Amino acid sequence: MLSIKNLNVNIANKEILKDFNLDIKEGEVHVIMGTNGVGKSTLVKALSDHYDCEVTKGEVTFKGKNLLELDASERANEGIFMSFQNPVEVHGVNNMYFLKSAVNEKRAYKKQEEVNSAQFLKEVKSIIKEYNLNDEIIKRNVNEGFSGGEKKKNEMLQLLVLKPELIMLDEIDSGLDIDAIKLVAKAVNSMLDGKRSVLMITHYDRLLELIKPDYVHILKDGKIIKSGDYNLALELQKRGFEGVGEDNESS
């Protein structure tokens, strides 16, 4: 699904990612872990065409297409979803209108008819009920006045409505209580049908207990220094990044 080869990315003229390589196949869950400032958020920002990021070298293909030739909206319409670490408030834009517009943009991109309004409202209300969200969420403006937890739940509503093929989560569990983490896990797990894939950034094992990763990668100085399965995340909890990184570099 996603192939990244020798990717180099600058932010504010500082090189953050350095010859970064990663392949993600359909249905796989990949987790990126590492200390602050090593390039985790830069990776997912670059993949979603964030304006902060300047790709200076490398190749990225998504479903066989050159991702670097597509702008942010085209990448979203191709099936890439980005849940931000700190979702922004969009003043004056109603949440329900935002969701419907996003879905219709995706349908237009694929040359499909616009969604039926009544059917769409029914689907959104069904999701809200299933995930025990406050039904006021669709009446409010996008993230306006939302708490940190409400913003993350709203991101999950967007995820469930848009049904992307590559789900990128940048510390979605940051600042969430255990009930909210369970909601996030339920939403993500419901999307895993063997075809959709996940690229998730986290510092904690709490979410990984609920969303079992196929691969865990440790990032340091802009590149992956060690990869493994869920056991690598457990090892990190015991030994910390320094211990695991030192063990890798000396081997």
From TrEMBL:
Gene3D superfamilies (alphabetical): P-loop containing nucleotide triphosphate hydrolases (3.40.50.300)
GO function terms (MF aspect): ATP binding; ATP hydrolysis activity
Residues annotated as domain ABC transporter: 2-246
Keyword ATP-binding: yes
Keywords noted in UniProt: ATP-binding, Nucleotide-binding
Top-level taxon of origin: Bacteria
Protein name, as recorded: Fe-S cluster assembly ATPase SufC
Organism listed in the record: Malaciobacter halophilus
